[in-house]
Design goal:
about 260 residues; TIM Barrel; nine-stranded mixed β-sheet; globular; 9 helices; about 25% strand; two-stranded antiparallel sheet; 11 strands; alpha/beta
Length: about 260
């Protein structure tokens, strides 16, 4: 089976345990206004203008975003790093975009990784049909589940989609042995307030799947130059600060509620 991959990054240390190879699949149903990988949003192969400075002048170079690959081709790239996985107890992480948009391609690679004895993680927003979500959850070793906003209206206004399906999938999750890490990107004015954080804690206490840890990802503007390169305008809603001042408060609040917490992935 073939799929569209927009990047493969080696030696990642923030996408799961140990040293990992992260495979980024193209396409995402959400349009988070803070997205730092806007080139990942469309499913089709596209182009991005990369800026190169020479002698004080600026030159724009068109570069292809996305590459059609077979599962076997991706696996050949992954297996090259097997030694690093074994020495660090690492593995491969499938991210995006939203990797569940290419679920057939994803499932084939997950199965091949398991045949090779390679640990797997999937970083997902949870926006998928219950059938797709349950199949992926039952096939991976670790689920990195992103919660953008616990409030449905806020979620719709900031991502373009309701969170109903997302939260329903998380509530129904019940896979023995599956490791679950919740990831919360802390966006100033969106989900870093006391009300939002408290409601998220209360929700997480109702789900069946044990939560191994809650990771807080501070907001940054490092990917905003990509919008210009794609001919797009960054959202006017973007906060000016690099990181929310409420990260410590969030860590403290969730820790007091009994969750293991971490700043960063």
């Amino acid at each position: 089976m073939k799929g569209i991959v927009f990047d493969i990054r080696r030696y990642a240390v923030h996408d799961g345990p140990g040293i990992r190879t992260t495979v980024f699949l193209k396409g995402c149903p959400l349009r988070c206004f803070w997205c730092h990988n806007p080139e990942s949003q469309t499913s089709a192969i596209g182009t991005i203008n990369k800026r190169r400075t020479l002698d004080g002048s600026v030159e724009w170079l068109a570069s292809t975003v996305g590459k059609e690959m077979t599962a076997d081709e991706v696996m050949r790239e992954i297996i090259r790093d097997r030694l690093y996985f074994e020495e660090s107890k690492g593995g491969v992480t499938f991210s995006g975009g939203e990797p569940l948009m290419q679920h057939g391609f994803l499932l084939e690679m997950l199965q091949q990784c398991h045949e090779e004895g390679i640990n797997t993680a999937v970083d997902t927003s949870g926006f998928a049909t219950s059938e797709v979500f349950s199949k992926v959850a039952a096939t991976t070793d670790l689920l990195l589940f992103d919660i953008k906003s616990i409030d449905d209206q806020c979620h719709y206004e900031t991502t373009g989609q309701s969170n109903h399906v997302i939260l329903k999938n998380l509530v129904s999750l019940d896979v023995p042995g599956l490791r679950l890490i919740i990831r919360i990107p802390l966006i100033p004015g969106v989900n870093d307030g006391l009300k939002s954080l408290t409601e998220t804690i209360n929700f997480l206490k109702t789900i069946r799947q044990p939560v191994e840890r809650v990771d807080f990802l501070p907001f940054h503007r490092l990917g905003q130059h990509k919008y210009e390169a794609l001919g797009l305008q960054p959202s006017p809603k973007l906060p000016n600060q690099q990181a929310t001042t409420n990260t410590r408060e969030a860590l403290s609040l969730f820790s007091a509620a009994g969750f293991r917490v971490k700043e960063g992935g």
